[in-house]
């Protein structure tokens, strides 16, 4: 991006960003914590060291070492992983604009705020928002359960970034009392966790959680996975031992282990079936319980919440793995027995979806267990505790691959940011310019998210247990009772528990 310079003073020093031709100011790679390396590796984040002079903020900071299969956007080298990026229509101390803080997804193993998918220029400009994106520790750096390190370090990083926002965002034109956290997939799971995390209290006023995953680990499961991972690099699951292993080597080992998870089903159960090597650990402290139970006591009742999931949450993974149309009856049975709730869960699905193919049953139970029911339960729990909760389901289909993706997981992200031409945007929406219908669909979704960030009202009634009103997002959005009622009835009365260890290592 080219343009004229603009400077803002932060608590650690002055940063210099760029203002584009339309007046939007962008600051990239601003540290919110010290690099978590050396003696700070696997530690809780520490405030950034102050600097003298003016720090250039034109480029994204380096990404955290990843264990995902795709290349990571942004700078490949460097240790200053914990940075924020700010887009502001009106930097300065007096604008008082609402602030939206985006937390990226990536299965707690990958992801970067430098991804062009998360370019917030359009969102900030059209929405009249100050938008902040951030990097947090993922993979083993952020979520491996080590014997002598704080658990859930990635969540601690997010809390540190939110503290930075509270202390500094006024200088960028934002109002620290009008902060909305927004995230998708692992980002939404992070937000669900932050709702009940004691250190996060008071750091945000509103929350938008898109596709909340039901991925939470017991300490026993997390510790067993960490022990196996450490063994892959000839180390022990301790800070001293793993600190001798290069971060990228550890991330690569985690990536290789993830590719072998099907061989660990007998040991790690649902975590292995869900291809999840990392997740927030229910440690009884930062994460006191799964969020759909933790928020029922009203600890987050003062936060305005919007929850959204997509209709075809698991379709993307079916297409990516080449399994769409190829699921056997044996595979469907194994999935139902692993993920359907209660001892009669398999029968309930088969009876409730008569005539459904093996592939349809497989996809439905995965979508329900991993995303749709956790999202619904979070809205229900927040509403029951007296907090305002709004529910939405994205129903509009992707035009990519002849419509094979349906209303898939992650489709809401390029629609929200308007980043149709980014690599991930093209993968989710297809090559070429978006149709007028897709642009209108995206504009409508963006207006709802922006309105919620401004005043807590997305434009439809709040969720109530009796009516269960849900916004059905598509080219022609409507409001109706919750559309996945069949699945809701199957899960009614059943808990969504943390994934647990099936059989310990011997």
How would you portray this structure in words?
InterPro entries: AB_hydrolase_fold (IPR029058), CarbesteraseB (IPR002018), Carboxylesterase_B_AS (IPR019826), Type-B_Carboxylest/Lipase (IPR050309). GO terms for molecular function: hydrolase activity. Belongs to the type-B carboxylesterase/lipase family. It comes from Streptomyces albireticuli. Its EC number is 3.1.1.-. This protein is an alpha/beta fold. The chain has one domain: Rossmann fold. Helices cover 35% and strands 15% of the residues. The chain has 17 helices and 13 strands. Strands 1, 2, 3, 4, 5, 6, 7, 8, 9, 10, 11, 12 and 13 form a 13-stranded mixed β-sheet that branches. α12 runs antiparallel to α17. It is globular. The model has no long low-confidence stretch (mean pLDDT 95).
Descriptors for this entry?
single chain, 506 residues, alpha/beta, Rossmann fold, 17 helices, 35% helix, globular
Please describe the topology of this protein.
Blueprint: E1 4-9, E2 14-19, E3 25-31, E4 54-56, E5 83-88, E6 97-103, H1 121-127, E7 130-134, H2 139-143, H3 153-168, E8 174-184, H4 186-196, E9 206-210, H5 219-232, H6 239-242, H7 247-259, H8 265-273, H9 291-294, E10 304-310, H10 315-320, H11 329-339, H12 345-352, H13 358-384, E11 389-394, H14 412-417, H15 423-429, H16 436-455, E12 469-473, E13 478-481, H17 485-491
Parallel strand pairs: 2-4, 6-7, 6-8, 8-9, 9-10, 10-11, 11-12
Antiparallel strand pairs: 1-2, 2-3, 3-5, 5-7, 12-13
């Amino acid at each position: 991006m080219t343009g004229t310079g603009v400077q803002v003073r932060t608590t650690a020093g002055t940063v210099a960003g760029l203002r584009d031709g339309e007046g939007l100011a962008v600051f990239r790679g601003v540290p919110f914590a010290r690099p978590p390396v050396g003696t700070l590796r696997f530690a809780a984040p520490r405030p950034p060291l102050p600097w003298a002079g003016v720090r250039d903020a034109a480029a994204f900071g380096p990404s955290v070492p990843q264990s995902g299969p795709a290349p990571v956007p942004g700078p490949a080298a460097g240790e200053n992983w914990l940075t924020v990026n700010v887009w502001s229509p009106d930097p300065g101390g007096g604008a008082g604009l609402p602030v939206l803080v985006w937390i990226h997804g990536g299965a707690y193993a990958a992801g970067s705020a430098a991804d062009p998918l998360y370019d917030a220029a359009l969102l900030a400009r059209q929405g009249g928002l100050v938008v902040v994106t951030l990097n947090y520790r993922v993979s083993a750096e952020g979520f491996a359960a080590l014997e002598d390190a704080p658990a859930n370090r990635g969540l601690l990083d997010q809390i540190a970034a939110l503290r930075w926002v509270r202390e500094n965002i006024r200088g960028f034109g934002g109002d620290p009392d009008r902060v909305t956290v927004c995230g998708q997939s692992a980002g939404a799971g992070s937000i669900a966790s932050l709702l009940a995390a004691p250190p996060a209290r008071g750091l945000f006023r509103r929350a938008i959680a898109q596709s909340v995953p039901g991925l939470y680990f017991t300490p026993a499961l997390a510790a067993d996975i960490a022990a196996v991972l450490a063994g892959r690099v000839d180390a022990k699951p301790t800070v001293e031992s793993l600190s001798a292993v290069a971060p990228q080597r550890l991330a690569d080992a985690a990536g290789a282990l993830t590719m072998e998870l099907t061989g660990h089903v007998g040991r790690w159960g649902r975590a292995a079936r869900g291809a999840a090597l990392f997740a927030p650990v229910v440690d009884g402290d930062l994460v006191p319980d799964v969020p759909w139970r933790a928020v029922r006591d009203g600890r987050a009742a003062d936060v305005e919440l919007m929850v959204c999931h997509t209709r075809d949450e698991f379709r993307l993974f079916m297409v990516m793995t080449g399994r769409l149309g190829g699921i056997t009856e044996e595979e469907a049975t194994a999935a139902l027995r692993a993920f359907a709730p209660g001892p009669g869960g398999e029968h309930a699905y088969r009876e409730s979806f008569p005539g459904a193919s093996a592939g349809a049953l497989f996809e439905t139970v995965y979508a329900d267990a991993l995303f749709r029911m956790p999202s619904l339960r979070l809205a229900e729990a927040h509403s029951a505790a007296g907090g305002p909760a709004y529910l939405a389901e994205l129903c509009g289909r992707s035009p990519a691959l002849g419509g094979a993706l349906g209303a898939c997981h992650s489709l809401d992200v390029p629609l929200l940011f308007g980043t149709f031409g980014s690599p991930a945007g093209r993968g989710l929406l297809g090559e070429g310019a978006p149709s007028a219908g897709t642009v209108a669909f995206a504009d409508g979704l963006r207006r709802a998210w922006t309105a919620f960030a401004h005043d807590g009202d997305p434009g439809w009634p709040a969720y109530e247990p009796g009516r269960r009103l849900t916004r059905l997002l598509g080219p022609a959005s409507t409001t109706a009772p919750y559309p996945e009622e069949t699945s809701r009835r199957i899960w009614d009365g059943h808990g969504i528990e943390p994934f647990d260890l099936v059989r310990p290592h011997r």
